[in-house]
Design goal:
The structure is a single chain. By secondary structure, this protein is mostly helical. The protein has one domain. The protein has 5 helices and no strands. The chain is elongated, with a radius of gyration of 19 Å. It starts with a helix and ends with a helix.
Length: 136
């Protein structure tokens, strides 16, 4: 039977694998999104071309930070010493103290959720405007 330490190490290996898959998917998404979505919207002369640029820049910044965090932990691997630090960055700390609330608001998950909501509320309106220009 595997010891508690061996089980934990196995889960750390799985976590690194899953983090690698996530990082690769995020990078592929941003690479695909750039030329297809943003270039199309800019080309069509959307009313909110500046908004499109801002959203694209924001996504590139998010990608850089998130990929950096992922790459550091993928290279380093997870250990008992750094696993909690990763979770604080990824999910934020739970609690009502101001520092814990800020930790949650600035976590990777929170940033990605806000980005998705902003895209749905802003960029999709731009998509509709482009469609209207084609009278579809």
């Amino acid at each position: 039977m595997a010891s508690s330490s061996e089980k934990k190490e196995f889960h750390y290996v799985e976590a690194v694998r899953d983090l690698t898959v996530f990082k690769d998917m995020l990078q592929a998404h941003v690479i695909k999104e750039g030329p297809s979505v943003y270039a199309f919207l800019k080309q069509e002369g959307s009313d909110s071309c500046e908004d499109v640029k801002e959203v694209q820049q924001e996504m590139n910044n998010i990608k850089r930070v998130v990929v950096g965090i992922c790459s550091n932990y993928i290279a380093e691997g997870f250990t008992d010493d750094n696993a909690m630090n990763f979770l604080k960055k990824w999910k934020g700390m739970k609690g009502d103290k101001a520092s814990e609330v800020m930790s949650r608001e600035n976590s990777v998950i929170s940033i990605l959720i806000r980005r998705t909501a902003a895209e749905e509320n802003g960029l999709y309106v731009t998509y509709e405007q482009v469609g209207e220009n084609f009278n579809v």
